[in-house]
Amino acid sequence: MTGIESTKAFRRRARASVPRISERERILPLSLVLGTLGGVFAAIAVFMLTTLDQAETAAERREQFWVSLLAIVGAVFFFASIGYSVWVLARKWRRRRAAAELAISRGWHYNVEWDPRAYPATLFRTGSRAWVENAAHLHEPRYIEVGNYSFETAERASGRREVGFVGIGLDRRLPHMYLEAAQRGRPRAYVPQFSADQRLSLEGDFDRWFRLYCPREYETDALYVITPDVMALMIDEAPGFDIEIIDDWMFVVAREPFDMADARVLDFAQRLAATLGGTTARQSARYRDDRSDDAAFVDRSGARLKTGRWLVTLLPAVITGLVWLGIAWANGVFALG
Q: Rounded mean pLDDT of 237-264?
């Protein structure tokens, strides 16, 4: 997307290129509902106030006055909600335009939204009704993609979540490795579930910073790639971020979304690509998986980590069963005779 005009023109062009945005961000139906409710409450308030002097007793007048006051508050709330929704959407488009202007001025390519399913990262298999938005990418000297992944969680209380990520292209395919940040802090919007028998402990105090998962029997391969130099860069450049190496990609995942209108985000992505990405690529340039018939690929056993999601699904059922057995036992269900 080039040639940034006014925010209105930018929004029109973006919606034309990505029709789903218009479908999701339509506020007219919501405004009609809120406006109708606001009108009903306003009518109730007017009726109560205009007929206040017709009340027969002081108690009825007080009751009618408080009802009218509550109706006024309700009308103000619904009408203010319309104004707030319009303001939030306008602000979102101003930030999108600012992000596009920044990216283009720096020589990056900008996408207001795209489907992430073509990318192999574990993050992009998380949640439902998901998309990447406000993203920028650069082709030289190494491919970099930076943006925000927006998705809905299974838990209704969590709702829609958003996290920032940086994707860095590597020079060859490598075994699947996931480094989960071990630092305490803000909870992750998503938590990948890998089976515990794939956990690999590394030397020094690296385990204080990251928990490394790699496929079983690929421990030596992981140590070939994750050398002390790479470990030091991970600690220095990406503390608190999850790091995933999968196929010929490295993904660095934040705990919260990036402000793509902030130039420091692009600087951070380029620095990661030059330091961590570049060092990892050089270190793994001669890597070959002896288990694979094709030198350009990793064997199936090492290409993907095994997930432990079935344990997470089974655990509630096991706990429920044990609780039921305990209650039954306490009530003598299993008593003989």
A: 94
